[in-house]
Amino acid sequence: MTKPNHFIHPYIPNSIPEIKQEMLKEIGINDVMELYEDIPDELLFKGKMNLPEPLLSEWELQSHVEQILSKNTSCKQNLNFLGAGCYQHYVPAICDEIINRAEFLTAYAGEPYEDHGRFQSLFEYESMMAELVDMDVVNVPTYDWAQAAATSIRMAYRINGRREVLISKTVGPERLKAIKNYCHPDISVVLVDFNKKTGLMDLDDLQQKISENTTAVY
């Protein structure tokens, strides 16, 4: 049995040769490489990439990936001290049940016309919160921990007008970058030392750095 001249990829749409040719004809070219003619020749890779042969069946692909993953050591079997947001999290089973419902299951982020699940969940949240606090309007929840912290600092600055925030040096680097981005250019960030044994903020250093210009401590 002879192999086909063209590889039809099972996971890439429109990889059937007839469909590809029809698409190329529609835009007035004969070969896909014509789309890359503007790229300088010296930047084009002329060799053959060192890639394994494609796995044609879903079963082969699953088996191959599972063999690779089996080499990993999971945090489910071992305690980790990664920190910086990578520590072990417990996600209640009900979370998977809810987010996999059809009315919630859409793209992670997007526009209102395509990301119905996220906006449906926000609507449900706002409706229940408005009923709980007996208000006509409530705001949507913050996007993540960095936005929550930065928004709170901005709120403090808006209320008291002070231009300096004190933050413990134990804060994660990604979170600190996000906070600085939110605070710039109105609020300066001052880092406070911490106790190397306990991980708690050094209160003596905090006392020295806190001033009338301090808008908040995080």
Question: How would you explain this protein's 3D organization?
Answer:
The protein has 218 residues and is mainly α. Among the domains are: 93-133, no CATH class; 145-217, Aspartate Aminotransferase, domain 2 (3-Layer(aba) Sandwich), CATH 3.40.640.10. The chain has helices at residues 17-26, 58-69, 93-99, 116-133, 145-160, 173-183, 203-209, and strands spanning 164-168, 188-192, 214-217. Strands 2-1-3 form a three-stranded parallel sheet. Helix 5 (145-160) packs parallel to helix 6.
Topology:
Elements: H1 17-26, H2 58-69, H3 93-99, H4 116-133, H5 145-160, E1 164-168, H6 173-183, E2 188-192, H7 203-209, E3 214-217
Helix pairs in contact: 5-6
DSSP strand tally: 3
State the major sheet: 3 strands, parallel
Based on the structure given, which CATH architecture of the domain at 145-217 is correct?
A: 3-Layer(aba) Sandwich
CATH-assigned homologous superfamily of the domain at 145-217: Type I PLP-dependent aspartate aminotransferase-like (Major domain)
> What do the pLDDT scores average to?
86
Oligomer: single chain
Structural class: mainly alpha
| Strand percent estimate | 5-15%
Order of helices and strands: HHHHHEHEHE
What fraction, in percent, of the residue positions are helical?
Answer: 25-40%
CATH topology tier name of the domain at 145-217: Aspartate Aminotransferase, domain 2
Specify the number of helices: 7
Tell me the name of the CATH class of the domain at 145-217. Answer: Alpha Beta
Tell me the overall shape: elongated
Strand order in the largest sheet: 2-1-3
Please report the distance between the alpha carbons of the first and last residues: 69 Å
Low-confidence stretches: none
Rg from Cα:
27 Å
